């Protein structure tokens, strides 16, 4: 006669197995990037071009942000966040040596979706003529790609999916205030997309080692596009005066800058500490391309050489959820990342939200 019913023993044993399997990061699998791609529109908009639309100049923009030019979608080309995301995705899948049929799931990060709903993820599923795999959108602005890759990583760690398409894409230019009123924000943002295939890695010492995500919603109004929202919908906006700028991005630039430098540093340190790494162990830092001055501040603070930090904001401006993945793709294309490198991704943005990813490149 058994004192403990079989079902109880079964549950206890299963719980113990799961506990030991998932505690101390002993997940079933790690994930690693096996293919990268990016796409930016052809249309180059220089600082001089902007000075013809508003009261600004090349010297101010370069001195404060490091930006020389950005890409803005030309109307009529058919590009959008979903379309650019699909273009970058095709390249990433091909470079991964896979086909669309090998992809199990799509994670799409953007703040500028083609539609209020549905999201861009399902559009990519359709554009790439994929099977009816799942697709989600991540709405986390400048840290969108870091949140997206962290989400995909969890699906792979648990064994649920093997190959996930992770995309970051942004179509800012059609939603910016291109008058002097909007110059503090408009000169910063650019359009573009990047994508990667995240895949199962059986060796737990390789690939994504850890991800770290944070938010502080009390500062939501410091960097925001307030309308249209369900509380402030189109007829209401149309009735408002021309002074209603709630549908343009608002940014308290100085406040955002001050918070960004603190949070970037914190979340990079958090990731290094989690993996018993020191600042000196960073081989390549890919910071979100918010402002060259922010990246330079972090580089100085972490005492990193120029070849340990990758920046391309000079060419593309801030492409928000696309910026980290475009920069990672270009760094890899330029041969600046090699097997065994400790690669750190870090981002901060509207929400506020911020995060980091620590990888052992494999
Ligand atoms: N061209 C010329 N002058 C401009 C300008 C432009 N495009 N935009 C603003 N100015 C003017 C302002 O009107 C202000 O003039 P005033 O002193 O006569 O009032 C002056 O330049 C200084 O403006 P300020 O906003 O204080 O400049 P700043 O040094 O803080 O730089 C940012 C502005 C936006 C570049 C900077 O705050 C920043 O990069 N913040 C963080 C941005 C960021 O990371 N955003 C994304 C989050 S992920």
Distinctive features:
362 residues, Peroxisomal Thiolase, Chain A, domain 1, five-stranded mixed beta sheet, four-stranded mixed beta sheet, single chain, 13 strands, 2 domains, alpha/beta
Can I get a quick summary?
The protein has about 350 residues and is an alpha/beta fold. It is built from 12 helices and 13 strands.
Give an overview of the whole structure.
With 362 residues, the chain is α/β, with parallel strands linked by helices. It folds into two domains: 30-201, Thiolase/Chalcone synthase (Peroxisomal Thiolase, Chain A, domain 1); 207-360, Thiolase/Chalcone synthase (Peroxisomal Thiolase, Chain A, domain 1). It is built from twelve helices and 13 strands. Strand 4 (105-109), helix 5 (120-127) and strand 5 (134-138) form a beta-alpha-beta unit. Residues 56, 60-61, 64-65, 142, 183-184, 187, 223, 251, 253-254, 256-257, 260, 290-291, 294, 318, 348-349 line the site of coenzyme A. Coenzyme A binds at residues 56, 60-61, 64-65, 142, 183-184, 187, 223, 251, 253-254, 256-257, 260, 290-291, 294, 318, 348-349.
């Amino acid at each position: 006669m058994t004192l403990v019913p079989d079902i109880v023993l079964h549950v206890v044993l299963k719980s113990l197995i799961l506990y030991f399997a998932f505690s101390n990061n002993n997940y079933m699998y790690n994930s690693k990037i096996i293919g990268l791609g990016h796409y930016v529109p052809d249309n180059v908009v220089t600082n001089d071009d902007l000075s013809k639309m508003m009261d600004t100049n090349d010297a101010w923009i370069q001195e404060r942000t490091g930006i020389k030019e950005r890409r803005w979608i030309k109307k009529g080309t058919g590009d959008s966040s979903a379309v650019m995301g699909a273009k970058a995705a095709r390249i990433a899948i091909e470079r991964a040596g896979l086909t669309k049929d090998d992809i199990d799931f799509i994670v799409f990060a953007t703040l500028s979706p083609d539609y209020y709903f549905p999201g861009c993820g399902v559009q990519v599923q359709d554009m790439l003529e994929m099977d009816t795999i799942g697709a989600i959108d991540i709405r986390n602005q400048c840290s969108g790609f870091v949140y997206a890759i962290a989400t995909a990583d969890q699906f792979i760690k648990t064994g649920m999916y093997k190959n996930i398409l992770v995309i970051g894409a942004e179509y800012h230019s059609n939603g910016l205030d291109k008058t002097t009123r909007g110059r503090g924000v408009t000169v910063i943002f650019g359009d573009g997309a990047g994508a990667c295939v995240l895949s199962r890695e059986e060796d737990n010492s390789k690939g994504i080692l850890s991800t770290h995500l944070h938010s502080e919603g009390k500062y939501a109004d410091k960097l925001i596009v307030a309308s249209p929202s369900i509380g402030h919908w189109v007829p209401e906006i149309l009735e408002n005066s021309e002074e209603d700028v709630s549908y343009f991005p608002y940014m308290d630039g100085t406040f955002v800058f001050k918070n960004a430098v603190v949070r970037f540093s914190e979340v990079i340190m958090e990731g290094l500490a989690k993996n018993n790494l020191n600042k000196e162990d960073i081989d390549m830092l890919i910071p979100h391309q918010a402002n060259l001055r922010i990246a330079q501040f972090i580089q100085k603070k972490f005492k990193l050489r120029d070849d340990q930090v990758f920046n391309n904001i000079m060419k593309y401006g801030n492409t928000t959820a696309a910026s980290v993945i475009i920069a990672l793709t270009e760094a890899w294309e330029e041969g600046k990342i090699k097997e065994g490198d400790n690669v750190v991704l870090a981002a901060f943005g509207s929400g506020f939200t911020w995060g980091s990813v620590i990888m052992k490149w494999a």
